Amino acid sequence: MSPLDFPRSVLVETTLRCPADCIFCPNKKITDRPIDMPWELFTKIVDDCRGKGVTEFHPFINGEPLASPYLEDSLDYISRNLPEAAVHIYTNGYLLDDSTASILLRCRNVREVHFSIDGFSKQVYEQHRRGLVYERVIANVRSFLDRLRHHPERIATRVVFTMTPDNEGEVTAFRRFWDGLVDMVDVLPCDGRGGEGRLPAFMDAQRLGCFQVTDRTYILSDGTVVLCCKDWAGYTALGNVKDESLQSIWNSPEYRRLRDDIGQGRIADCEVCRRCVSDKL
């Protein structure tokens, strides 16, 4: 299938549960859709992707995927029905105990794990990741990395540091600490979540460009398909997978037009894009 016939990467909001209350995340503002995606809806999405050339499946948008009540079942369902799709896990690490780590390591499709850690010191980290305990997160992540050394399959790892005015000074120490422990260290300025996050965008977040729409699709916990991960509130509702197939939504005239416009830099007609690029300190 050609790239425009079906997305290569699918992001699914399996849960909105999260033990953290991060200062830049809109998660706690979401009250109008299911806290957990219904199992029947999740399996329908996976079934819709079968045989369509999906190369990446991300069970995450606006929650902590390890908090999903059907984490193990969902990973097993992906493995059985999308054997060629690499599963990417995004986690703050707080729930990554031995039991949860074992679930991830048993899934042959898990190919990459991202750890979101926004500080080097306990004080700065807990200022940003409110509700979490720095020592527990670091211990969980280090334990998981230790287990990976003896794991027969290759799983890539990265830590992601969301930079704000209050943690910018810890970037150098953060990089020094994690370099060599994980495969990649990403430091990304807070992007403002399309103008609707708790913090505005920091520094040159907009200069990173937009890679969100040309080959990716995003599905919220109620089945709504939206344009990108920053559209956590559903401004660009393009259809609902409860009512029609993901392929028909992806190939709708509106969705095709938006992808083409954004690919060409034409964003004036897209509210989420306007909010994103205008959201600056």
Overall pLDDT, averaged?
89
Topology pattern, helix = H, strand = E? EHEHEHEHHEHEEEHHH
Biggest sheet layout:
8 strands, mixed
Rounded Rg: 18 Å
**Number of beta strands:** 8
Helix and strand composition category: alpha/beta
- Relative helix content: 25-40%
Distance between the termini: 42 Å
Estimated share of beta-strand residues: 5-15%
Widest sheet: strand order?
Answer: 6-5-4-3-2-1-7-8
Which blocks of ≥5 consecutive residues have pLDDT under 50? 194-198
Output the number of helix runs.
9
Shape: globular
Could you write a compact summary of the structure shown?
Helices cover 30% and strands 14% of the residues.
Structure in words:
Strand 2, helix 2 (71-81) and strand 3 form a beta-alpha-beta unit. The chain is of the alpha/beta class. 30% of the residues lie in helices and 14% in strands. The longest helix has 15 residues, at 134-148. It is built from nine helices and eight strands. The N and C termini lie far apart (42 Å). Strands 6-5-4-3-2-1-7-8 form an eight-stranded mixed β-sheet.
List key phrases describing it.
single chain, 281 residues, alpha/beta, eight-stranded mixed β-sheet, 9 helices, globular
Give the topology.
Layout: E1 9-12, H1 39-49, E2 56-58, H2 71-81, E3 86-91, H3 98-106, E4 110-116, H4 122-128, H5 134-148, E5 156-163, H6 171-178, E6 184-189, E7 216-219, E8 225-226, H7 246-250, H8 253-263, H9 271-278
Parallel strand pairs: 1-2, 1-7, 2-3, 3-4, 4-5, 5-6
Antiparallel strand pairs: 7-8
